[in-house]
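2024-03-11 09:14:02 INFO worker-7 job=invfold-0412 stage=load source=structure_tokens
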């Protein structure tokens, strides 16, 4: 994160029933291949993150939360099916599926995580660091 962003990020689901803005900076993008991200996305998830206080929902008409594990909820649109958010049960951080942000994002993908859970059809060959589980593992 080099220069502070002066305009808010905007993003939405496919149908627009869920829309949001983010003030301030977003974390670089992680590619997560864990089985839950694989199932919910149909492939893998590209996620950035921020403090939950930076996120404002400008429309939550069709936002649903699914408890994907005892530790986390996933926010999705009940109309168009877009996967938008991942929120831990404890803590203030919220992950945002990077593809729901309106470009240009200025963000950069930096690593793959949970590659041990990637499916067998998928060859990761972009040269970014690969972690079997969480970063550092
Ligand atoms: Zn939608
Ligand atoms: Zn994941």
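2024-03-11 09:14:09 INFO worker-7 stage=emit residues=137
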């Amino acid at each position: 994160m080099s220069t502070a962003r002066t305009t808010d990020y905007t993003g939405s689901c496919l149908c627009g029933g869920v829309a949001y803005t983010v003030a301030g900076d977003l974390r670089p993008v992680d590619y997560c291949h864990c089985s839950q991200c694989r199932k919910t996305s149909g492939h893998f998830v590209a996620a950035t993150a921020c403090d939950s206080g930076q996120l404002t929902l400008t429309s939550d008409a069709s936002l649903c939360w699914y408890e994907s594990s005892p530790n986390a909820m996933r926010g999705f649109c009940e109309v168009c099916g877009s996967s938008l958010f991942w929120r831990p049960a404890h803590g203030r951080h919220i992950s945002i599926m990077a593809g729901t942000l309106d470009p240009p994002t200025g963000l950069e993908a930096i690593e793959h995580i949970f590659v041990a859970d990637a499916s067998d059809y998928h060859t990761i060959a972009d040269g970014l660091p690969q972690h079997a589980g969480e970063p550092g593992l």
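2024-03-11 09:14:09 INFO worker-7 stage=report msg="Residues 32, 34, 36-37, 45, 114 surround zinc ion (ligand 2) (CB under 6 Å)."
2024-03-11 09:14:10 INFO worker-7 job finished
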